Amino acid sequence: MNYYLMAFKRYADFSGRSRRKEYWYFVLFNFLIYILLFAADMAIISNSSSAGLGIFSGIYALATLIPSLAVAVRRLHDIGRSGWSILFGLIPLIGAILLLIWYTTDSQVGSNAYGLNPKDIGEDQLIEQIGGARAY
User: Fold this and answer.
1) Angle at 117 between CA 129 and CA 73, to 5 degrees
2) How far is C-alpha 92 from the geometric centre of its chain's CA atoms?
3) Which of 3, 59, 95, 135 is the 20 to 30 A CA-CA neighbour of 49?
4) What is the DSSP letter of 11?
5) What is the 3-state secondary structure (H, E, C) of 80-132?
6) Averaged pLDDT of the chain
7) Is residue 44 predicted with pLDDT exceeding 50?
8) CA 48 – CA 68 distance, rounded (Å)
9) What angle do CA 21, 113, 133 make, to 5 degrees?
10) What is the pTM of this model?
C-alpha cells in the first residue's frame, strides 16, 4: 500500500525513476479500488451503460489519470526509455504487448539520464526523499 501512496505523493512528477515494485503495486491497488467503486456504482444503479462508468468509478478514474501516467513514465525512465514511449500504447495490440514487456523489464543498472537507480538508493531513503513516512 505504501507504493500506491508513493505514486500519489509524486502526483504529477514525470521526472525520475520508479522501480517495478512501485509500478505494479500501484496498478494492483488501483485495480482493486476501481473494482470496489464499480460494485458500489452497480449497487446504487449509477452505472451508465453508454459510458461504462458510474459516478464513483468515473471520479476515481479521473483522479488517478495523472498519477497513472506519471508512474508509467517514471517506469519507462527506469529502463532507460523516454517517457514518450508510452505513446506506443496507441498502436493496437502490438503497443500494449510492447509496453507490458517494458513494464516488466528489470531496472537499468546504475544511474541513467533520468537519475539514480531506485534499487541503489534504498526504499527508506527514497520514501524520505519524497517526504513520506514508512508504513510498517
Assistant:
1) 85
2) 21
3) 95
4) T
5) CCCHHHHHHHHCCCHHHHHHHHHHHCCCCCCCECCECCHHHHCHHHHHHHCCC
6) 86
7) yes
8) 23
9) 40
10) 0.82
Torsional class of 8: left (φ above 0), alpha (ψ -120 to 50), beta (otherwise): alpha
Q: What are the grid coordinates assigned to 113, written together? A: 539520464
Quote the cell numbers at residue 95.
503497443
* Residue showing cell 488501483: 30
pLDDT, one tens digit per residue, over 47-82 is: 655 666 788 888 999 999 999 999 999 999 999 999
CB of 47 within 8 A of CB of 39? no
* Amino acid (1-letter code) at residue 121: I
- Please determine, for residue 135, whether its predicted confidence score (pLDDT) is greater than 50: no
Half-sphere CA count of 15, side-chain side, radius 13 A: 3
